């Protein structure tokens, strides 16, 4: 960790940076920054960083504990409070809430979109958001306009809520996250922002994320999706997870979604829904990995290593005689 110490940092580029203690031992990774807006369009003050530590727990590290921000590393000192991070009144997540926001140039009232935000340390040691990287609207056939970095005082509009806020730049900072990590990020967003991100994800990616979320959170997220989209996402989920989710949304809503699903997918889910929660039948899957005795160990390893295979399914391979379609066949 002998990189150059930085006094101005663009926060979207900071996302995913490793965090170390003074001894060089890894602590976690930066996921966001917490700030507070100030009156009279003054530069917001950075309060701290949201750091993801092992077991996907997101904790708050005060900016006063950050001793240096280097290229590729953040160094902190002191003990880390392992209590799960929750935003308080007056606090905002810089990446989660301000990226992709439509704001206005003070000089000419031109509408622009936020692509990144730069924080800078002043002489007193405080970190302030002093720069905003913006994109202007494209002209003619160009979908993207020119980009530039302006001072915070040159733009306005952050204090006003925005409906249908974009998510392109936010998703670019989250694109490499595994489903479980992305689920942890989404759960910490405000409900409005959470729904906007969900609508922007493709069906398969959203299904993977929802399978990793807490039960109450994914029920709430499913309620934000329109009927056809919700049914498409359920079709991409593992049947046992889809059945668990439909049990929680209410009988009327569940029936509506099942009718919108493809018959083959709906049949598997309905079969599982006949069992009680947490019973053997209710926890089983209709899509186990099944092979005959003719397959090799290499074939089995290749099957469980497929990227779309969940850890729960990959943990077991069933060796059966023909026929291999469940629930027929006899286990060897």
Could you characterize what this model shows?
The chain has 4 domains: 87 residues, SH3 type barrels (Roll), CATH 2.30.30; 60 residues, Roll (SH3 type barrels), CATH 2.30.30; 62 residues, no CATH class; 45 residues, no CATH class. Helix 4 packs across helix 6 and helix 9 packs across helix 11. A hairpin with a 3-residue loop joins strand 4 and strand 5. By secondary structure, the chain is of the alpha+beta class. It has 14 helices and 15 strands. The strands form 3 sheets. Strands 2, 3, 4, 5, 6, 7 and 8 form a 7-stranded mixed β-sheet that branches. Strands 1, 9, 10, 11, 12 and 13 form a 6-stranded antiparallel β-sheet that branches.
Write down the overall mean pLDDT: 86
Q: How do the helices and strands follow one another from N- to C-terminus? A: EHEEEEEEEHEEEEEHHHHHHHHHHEHHE
The CATH superfamily of the largest domain turns out to be PRC-barrel domain
Level of helix content?
Answer: 25-40%
- Helix and strand content put the structural class at alpha+beta
State the shape.
globular
Separation of the first and last Cα atoms:
55 Å
Tally of strands: 15
CATH topology of the largest domain: SH3 type barrels
CATH architect. name of the largest domain: Roll
Beta-strand percentage range: 25-35%
Q: How many separate domains? A: 4
Top CATH class of the largest domain: Mainly Beta
Low-confidence stretches: none
The number of helical segments is 14
Alpha-carbon Rg, integer:
24 Å
